[in-house]
UniProtKB/TrEMBL annotation:
One of its GO terms (biological process) is guanosine tetraphosphate metabolic process. It comes from the Bacteria. The keyword Signal applies. GO terms for molecular function: transferase activity. It comes from Photobacterium gaetbulicola. SUPFAM superfamilies: Nucleotidyltransferase. The lineage of its organism: Bacteria, Pseudomonadati, Pseudomonadota, Gammaproteobacteria, Vibrionales. Residues 1-23 form the signal peptide. This is Phosphoribosylglycinamide formyltransferase. Keywords: Signal, Transferase. The keyword ATP-binding does not apply.
Length: 261
């Protein structure tokens, strides 16, 4: 090979090598730029979530003094209950659409159950029964639940709040339980705000556990005796299982995948 050919070959190799070296940083810069967006979104999501969680914990439990229905007579009260239930349904459907939450609307409390509750729990005072009209709202996440609470408080007069997210039951169950005064009928209605995973435990595994505990307690009661050691151990184990289920369900809302880094 003559000198001219050698020089030509070296010149071509130099440009090929230089071109390859220049291409690599461009790919690296693109990848780095692509991954810079994620932390910003994650940080914003975290701040939004923390604000919602703080908002949930800031809801105080309280109850207005002397809560009464607008009718003292049970017949008058029960006659307006269906229209009040429809008024509540309209309110809840509006809240559900604005917060992307699910609404559960049971029938008006049955006459037999209402009369029994008034007689056994309310000293015969029909004006004290507050769950003839009732509804439940099930949210996918804490921000949705807090938003729903805020909307309900704007559309109806809240007269009682029990925040069991802040102070859960002994079993670990959590929800927001409200009594609201409906604007048109002025009937007091019960509204419960749930998180989906906790609601699933309550209506699934925890309900089975509750039935098992009830069976053990009824057996001892029917035999007119206290629980024996084996039964007490069974009940303790079942209650521990229930608490663990609720704990796990609650934890998934404290570490949602949408804000994970």
């Amino acid at each position: 090979m003559d000198l001219r050919s050698v020089l030509r070959t070296c010149f071509v190799l130099f440009f090929l090598t230089r071109g390859s070296a220049m291409a690599t940083p461009l790919m690296t810069d693109y990848s780095a730029q692509d991954y810079e967006v994620s932390p910003k979104h994650s940080e914003a999501s975290k701040k939004s979530f923390q604000k919602s969680l703080s908002g949930l914990y800031s809801i105080e439990s309280w109850r207005a003094a002397d809560i009464q229905q607008p009718h003292l007579n049970f017949e008058d009260l029960y006659n307006v209950a269906p229209s009040a239930q429809q008024e509540l349904a309209n309110l809840m459907n509006e809240v559900g659409m604005m917060t992307d939450t699910s609404i559960v609307m049971p029938d008006v409390k049955s006459r037999a159950r209402a009369e029994k509750k008034i007689a056994t729990e309310l000293n015969g005072d029909a004006s004290k029964i507050t769950d003839l009209a009732r509804a439940s709202l099930v949210a996918d996440d804490i921000p949705g639940l807090v938003h729903a609470f805020e909307l309900i408080s704007k559309e109806a007069t809240i007269v009682s709040v029990k925040n069991r997210f802040k102070s859960p039951t002994d079993s670990g169950y959590r929800d927001l339980k409200l009594l609201v005064k409906l604007p048109e009928s002025e009937l007091i209605a019960e509204v419960q705000l749930h998180l989906e995973a906790i609601s699933d435990v309550k209506n699934g595994e925890e309900h089975k556990i509750y039935e098992q505990i009830q069976h053990i307690e009824r057996t001892a009661l029917s035999q007119n005796r206290p629980h024996n050691e084996f039964e007490m151990a069974q009940i303790s184990k079942l209650r521990a299982t229930s608490k663990s289920l609720y704990h796990d369900a609650w934890q998934q809302y404290l570490q949602p995948a949408s804000i994970a880094v």
